[in-house]
Write a structure and sequence with these properties.
Layout lengths: L2 H13 L2 E5 L20 H8 L7 H4 L2 H12 L1 H13 L7 H8 L4 E4 L5 H5 L5 E6 L10 E7 L3 E5 L10 E4 L2 E2 L5 E2 L3 H13 L5 H6 L4 E5 L6 H10 L9 E4 L5 H9 L2 E4 L3 H7 L10
Parallel strand pairs: 1-2, 1-9, 2-6, 3-6, 9-10, 10-11
Antiparallel strand pairs: 3-4, 4-5, 7-8
Helix pairs in contact: 2-4, 4-5, 4-8, 8-10
Amino acid sequence: MTDTTFTALIDGLKAGQIVPYLGAYALDGAVNTQTGEPIPADSDSLILAMNNGQPMSPKLMYEFPRAAMNQELKRGRSFLSKFLTQLYGETEWTTPVLYDWLAGLNLPYLIDINRDTLLQQNYAQRDHMLIVGISRTGGTDYRFRLFVYRVGAGYEEVTLENAPAGLPILFKPMGTPKPDPTYIASDADYVDYITELMGGFAIPDFLKTYRKEKQYLLLGMRLTRDTERMVLSDIIYAAAQPITGWALIPDATEKEVRFCKRIGIEVIDAGVPELLSAAGVESALETV
């Protein structure tokens, strides 16, 4: 990997042609302000946090949605919402350097598949549109909710018909505690959401138009599980060809490389720290 490649990626981000797509490891460096413990974001960490620090059976440890489905069946759907809201909405976390840097670029569009509010806090300095994924919800044809954020006023939910144009877009398909706790977490949530995503009902029309011919930079993503690969494939539909984007994945597995090649994403054997270093941003993170 050359500095020239990183420079081209950074320039593409600044120009709005390349869209950041943030996975669990984009949160590396975020810690509990009281205890110093890292924020649970990847599958294993979330399962342990959900189960009082205890591992579950190997079958359930395979993936968070599977473990979450097990807990939903035992303890009710409200248990998952309460757990995620307490974890991400009621606990104070430090902000990773990557988030500060991305927020400073004033990007027109960013995708964050994590469920925390740290990017929303970064975006609180400017007006923006928040798109939140929903599932298993009656009374609507869509699998998203739209919120407009105005500095000094906060979030206000809007309909697709009266959504203002031209605002920077923060897309959180897996949900967030704020302004109203909504999550895609269990297997049942994902089945419903992905089905509607494939059918075109989980992406607002204005975003379907805007995303055409865009390219993507995957940051903090591992692509070893079908669930995240399916969500990714549909969210980046209508991307530029033949190069859909790039994925910073240190020591990528053969499975990850094959998947990325199939959808036109070039794998770069590097992590977030290398990108930040090329951008002139100091980071204490180790490559993950």
